[in-house]
What does this fold into?
Amino acid sequence: MNTKNLNIIIVLGLVATIGILIAQLLWTREAFTVEEQKFSQKTHVALLEVVKKLYKSSNSELPVNNPIKKVSNDYYIVNVENDFQPDILEYYLKTEFAKFNINTDYEYAMYNCESDEMVYGNYISVTNKSENQKQINFPKHENLVYYFAVRFPNETSYLLSSLRFWFLLSLALLIILVIYVYSIYTIIQQKKYSELQRDFINNMTHEFKTPLSSILLASTYLNKQDVIQKDNKLEKYTEIIISQSKKLNSHIEQILNIAKSDNAPMKMTLTEVSITPILKEVIESIQLRNPNSKVTIQAERDYTIQADEFHFTNIIYNLLDNSVKYCDDNPEITISIAKEKNQMTLSFTDNGIGIATKNLNFIFDKFYRIPSIKSNEVNGFGLGLYYVKKICTEHNWKIAATSNAEKGITISIAIPI
It folds into this structure.
């Protein structure tokens, strides 16, 4: 994915997440407003019922006008226009508030005509906890004679407690937003490091190519001189220089190909490929370099597959080359081809030093080399099996490695037909 598309996805995801969080907070605020309105309505109806019972106990007629006035969110004044007893009022308040499911603490006060002031009545705790509440002075209301006031000191916390689910959901969305931002930051950092690594590899390998080409050209020309050809030792040394230079050039080309394939999709030219001729060609090349190696092909007949011939040949060469390099004895490799229903399996079994089970999952990773004495002896960058896995993925093939019971490993490629 290129940088432009990645940035667009990051921005859209961030905007969407922030938008959902803002919408959730607005919904929570709206839910609080609705709960506040419901509480006010229930309190209004409950106090109206208290007024009715007070009038009924004194055999008086109900007033025409609404006797209840909401002074503030948590403070109500109720005009009864009639004398009443404090204990009766408290009883009615408890009864009606319980009936309307108003389960929060409240306190009340009554106006005293003789002293012309509000007299504190009582603090009613629905939780039955010890009363450590400070008595609040209730303000006196003008132009009223027989009235009482009710205050809910914990109304806000009571309403907030009824919105626990909304707050938990908002908190969850906030955590998701934080995780998303952190993940995006990590992805950007990893992408930055990956680009730096790729640029470094490209620059390093290109810088190596120029002097290496000069060394190959000079050593090849030197090897053709009569003086060198007459001296066996000098000829052997120049051949070593040429051989090692070619090997180094092969490694550099491999690194360049991997870096190029990471930056852009690899182009595959799929054709009908016969497996056995390619196997024999690669085996011949391997045995020329390693005369002691023995490679056996087990197949009922020659099979053909849809593949890129160049990359498929490289896969075979890499797998056989690894089996030869990582073997302490004379290499013995068995290549078996089996066909089952709509799938063909190409397996490579060797008698090499093997791989511990805990390391099998990492052998296809880029630059991964198993820490061992043999790995230190063998030249390489840990790119061979990474390249093999990448080519298999491009072909929609599946590759897997398993340890053998006695020695070596088996690498299997599942090819859909």
Q: What stands out?
A: The chain has a mean pLDDT of 81. The first helix runs from residue 3 to 57. The radius of gyration is 43 Å. The longest strand covers residues 332-340.
